[in-house]
Amino acid sequence: MVRAWQSLTAEQDVAGPITRCTKDLATVLSVMASVGPGQEDPVTFGVPDSVARSDFTASLAGRPLAGLRVGLLSGFLSNAIDAETIPVKQAMDNAVSTFEANGVTIVPVDDAVYDAQRLLATLDTQRFEYRENLDRYLQGSDLAGDYPRSFHELYTSKDFLVIPAQYEYIKTASAIDTSDPAYMHVRQDIADLESTLSATFAQHRLDAIIYPQQKRLTVKLGSPSQAGRNGILAALTGFPSVCVPAGFSPATADAPIGVPIGMELLGLPWTEQKLLQIAHKFEQLTRIRKPPTNGHVDNNKEQASTSRFPASQVISAAYPLGVLQ
Predict the structure, then answer these.
(1) Ordered per-residue pLDDT tens for the chain, 325 residues
(2) Chain segment 251-308, per-residue pLDDT in tens
(3) Stated pTM of the model
(4) Distance from the CA of 104 to the CA of which of 111, 157, 172, 201 falls in 20 to 30 A?
(5) SS in 3 state form for 198-264?
């Protein structure tokens, strides 16, 4: 089985990276240009005119790196020393060297607030929002066919299995929603985090902040969970970020070109143009990205990588059979 680079998590997709490490920037921008405001997302209607009129593709090569100040989040690097973390650290060291060689000042950011694991554990709003959002989606008039019509119908039907890594999440989501007083406290804490992040940019006069997309290499397909994710900062604050290829782990039998390693660049609100320019310049200087090779995927293990699947299918031993009660 070829070791695959899993897609970003839900919390990253909602408001985090504006592109993905597997895509060329110009390709991504051509898609972004055709996307307008989201009817259910009021933030997209507040785009400044100067940003809305920007041609991000035409301006990609318009900013030199020399003179920029880029923060490096120390708390988003792993303290562990093993085969899963060393390649990530080396990739970040190489990225820092590339920036510095091209006139960028790297500023260490050691603030204790920037701890991805703590942020995910204390400020994740999805447990409060998931059931309501899923019900709204499943009850939409644009859906057709035979499928569960609500959160509870889905998770009590005994037709699907909740993987162990998500069991606590789903159990909690079944009992709470956005009317819970704790939800408002979390929202306030997120607003405070946004203010703190803005202050960090101002204090250090930063143009962007960098950190590895995750502290450890991406796990193989079929693994119960991915440890060390860092996308939570952009997801919580809504600050724009872009992910660029930063390196590869050493090649192995199940990863013939190595496991790709991503680096995120995060900026202040409405600075997408600057971030894309920095990302494009870094991409042109490093030429790290390599197209993935084709390989054999065990369909049974691939099924186990999804968050739910029919219990009648062959289930990997990593996911003991059971239903949510």
Answers:
(1) 232 222 223 333 333 333 334 345 555 454 455 556 766 777 777 788 777 777 888 888 878 999 999 999 999 999 999 999 999 999 999 999 999 999 999 999 999 999 999 999 899 899 999 999 999 999 988 888 888 899 988 888 777 777 776 778 888 999 999 999 999 999 999 999 999 999 999 999 999 999 999 999 998 877 767 889 999 999 999 999 999 999 999 999 888 899 999 999 999 999 999 999 999 999 999 999 988 776 555 555 444 444 444 444 445 555 555 455 5
(2) 998 888 999 999 999 999 999 999 999 999 999 999 999 887 765 555 554 444 444 4
(3) 0.77
(4) 111
(5) HHHHHHHCCCEEEEECECCCCCCCCCCCCCCECCHHHHHHCCCEEEEEEEECCCECCECCCCEEEEE
Q: Which two tokens stand for residue 323?
A: 């239903």
Amino acid at 164: P
Q: Tokens at residue 18, please?
A: 């504006």
Q: Which domains does the chain have, with CATH numbers?
A: 10-35+43-114+204-303 (3.90.1300.10)
Beta bridge partners of 247: 261
3-state SS string for the chain: CCCCCCCCCHHHHHHCECCCCCCCHHHHHHHHCCCCCCCCCHHHHHCCHHHHCCCCCCCCCCCCCCCCEEEEEHHHCCCCCCCCCHHHHHHHHHHHHHHHHCCCEEEEECCCCCCHHHHHHHHCCHHHHHHHHHHHHHCCCCCCCCCCCCHHHHHCCCCECCCHHHHHHHHHHCCCCCCCHHHHHHHHHHHHHHHHHHHHHHHHCCCEEEEECECCCCCCCCCCCCCCECCHHHHHHCCCEEEEEEEECCCECCECCCCEEEEEEECCCCCHHHHHHHHHHHHHHHCCCCCCCCCCCCHHHHHCCCCCCECCCCCCCCCCCCCCC
